[in-house]
Amino acid sequence: MAKHDPTLSRLFHALADDTRRGALTRLAKAPAPVTELAEPTGLKLPTVMRHLAVLEEAGLITSFKDGRTRTCALVPEALEPVRSWIEEQRAQWEARLDRLDAFVMQIMKDDEQ
Amino acid sequence: MAKHDPTLSRLFHALADDTRRGALTRLAKAPAPVTELAEPTGLKLPTVMRHLAVLEEAGLITSFKDGRTRTCALVPEALEPVRSWIEEQRAQWEARLDRLDAFVMQIMKDDEQ
DNA sequence: ATCATGCTTAGCCATATGGCTAACTATCGC
DNA sequence: GCGATAGTTAGCCATATGGCTAAGCATGAT
């Protein structure tokens, strides 16, 4: 099944976890072997491997095996779809920030739930 | 229980779903009642409500009830933490794009799995 | 008062996710 | 070859997620 499926949903899902974001920021400094990525997490190796697999399936990282150690590294462009989606939204959301005022008033007065 | 917990994980998770992103882009045009948000999805109301709850818990939308209809609207600032995290990463990732070259070579020749 | 509308709540079901242990494979260093 | 090292695979378990139906509860229209 699609080894690398960098759809928005897959990307966002991959990013929706502290452990995985932690691995990414660690890899932002330099490529690293699995064990080194696992160490600060306090999690067991198989668990970390799963997280790394999620990142790799989303296309956010690559890895290659040299001898018995697997080295992981970022795929910098991978973040682009996410970034552009966010930017698109932000542009539109801000574009109508003005028209929102009246709506906010409604909330103020009704203040439901 | 936290009604509004806009942590990064929660935000990313909320965004990791087509239906929910669909609702957001719809709301980018203007606030809308639940039924209208549900209509294009082909999903049942309770299901859509759950999606909207996820968005609201992440702080991405608000809603208020006027009579029997609940109107939902974006919370434009909500996207900011996500945007800034992405930007931070991008900055760092690109910063060491150069040093990545050697690594890519490795992948080329080993070509694991 | 009654009926349709627009949610809401409760609860069921299948699958996905995140964690673990145990056991296996493949190097590397001696 | 032998033991330690670094992954890897398989499988178990609890909880979360995403979908549904059925039933309930206001509110608006007649």
UniProtKB/TrEMBL annotation, chains A, B:
It comes from the Bacteria. PROSITE patterns: HTH_ARSR_2. CDD domains: HTH_ARSR. Residues 1-94 form the HTH arsR-type domain. SMART domains: HTH_ARSR. InterPro entries: ArsR-like_HTH, HTH_ArsR_DNA-bd_dom, WH-like_DNA-bd_sf, WH_DNA-bd_sf. GO terms for molecular function: DNA-binding transcription factor activity. NCBIfam families: HTH_metalloreg (NF033788). PANTHER family: SLL0088 PROTEIN (PTHR38600:SF2), TRANSCRIPTIONAL REGULATORY PROTEIN (PTHR38600). This is Transcriptional regulator. It comes from Sphingobium fluviale.
